[in-house]
Amino acid sequence: MLRRTVFKGGTALAAMTVAGPAIAQSAKWPSREISLINPNAPGASTDLTARIIASALEKRLNATVIVKNVVGGAGALGPTTLAQSAPDGHTIGLVAISSHIAVPNMMNVTYDPWKAFDIIGQVAALRYGIGARADGPIKSIEDLIAQGKQKQLTYSSNNVTNVVAMFQLAKLTGAKLRWVVFPGGVESVTAAIGGHVDAVIQTVTEMRPQIEAGKLRLLASAAQARWPDYPDVKTLREMGYDAGSNGPFGYALPAGVDPAIKDRLEKALADVMKDETVTKQISNLGIEAIYRNGKDYGELLKKIEIELVPILKETGMAKKPA
To answer: Between 3.40.50.300, 2.60.40.1930, 3.40.190.10, 3.40.50.2300, what CATH number should domain 128-221 receive?
Structure first.
């Protein structure tokens, strides 16, 4: 009986010993600046959004939030760095289709996307569009398809997430459309207006300046809805093609962070996304401000995985089974 009592007491003591550091960690957090890892170059849509979010989080967490652009590894370096970061609540990072679906299915990475992160929420969705040089021979999606049936055409973009609509369009119509990969969105658009490729599929942020300058023609919205800035330009689905690119993105912690810290961060992010000043800033970038909590955002990514992985396999972009 005595031994049983000692055992119970020991168990309770052990539990207190384990819980103690977590409680202390939560009480002292944040104890230094918080890093927000963004896997894209400065000036990209996700980078500009990250800086808006970082500034808003600073006010709610009473801590400095620094955006760190961790670019490279065909998009793998950012999420890999996040996954390997200390789970102390001082590092968060972007998670999206690239980190959870495209990169792990296209190359060997050191992290399991469904185990390496604790998602805290979605903040936005990118709007995609298909464009061509304004003074070029392609004036419409019908031109793109017709010419693509006669010869192989090329189009530019910097991420596999972006180009899903083009793969779908090629499959639906029989047009021969080949993706030429560029390191960034701006470079992708520059290649199109320079005539180095026949078309481009990219986000509003990268395309809009050249559309407004009269150098790029917007052929179609490749998003779920028309672009607010160009309400007369139809979506691919409105044109009769069941095609579109989906671009949600949000943020996560490396797995293993104290649940109390994760809860505080998730509530802070939710509060940020209730701020109309923040959502207007994001919308002004041409990005759709959408909030989902961590659980719902994770479920959305799993749904998209079911849709995207078959495309990667069919196009030969998926890695070979080990």
So the answer is: 3.40.190.10
Asked if 322 and 107 count as a contact pair (C-beta separation under 8 A), the reply is: no
How confident is the model over 175-206, as pLDDT tens digits?
A: 999 999 887 888 999 999 999 999 999 998 89
What lies within 8 Å, CB to CB, of 150 at 6+ separation is none
CATH 3.40.190.150 assigned to domain 10-125+247-314? The reply is yes
Q: Which two tokens stand for residue 291?
A: 């909030």
Residue 125: closest CA among 268, 313, 309, 304: 304
Q: If we measure between CA atoms, which residue out of 219, 223, 242 comes closest to residue 232?
A: 219
Q: CB count, 10 Å around CB of 112?
A: 11
Rounded distance between C-alpha atoms, residue 71 and residue 183, angstroms? 10
Domain segments of the chain as ranges: 10-125+247-314, 128-221
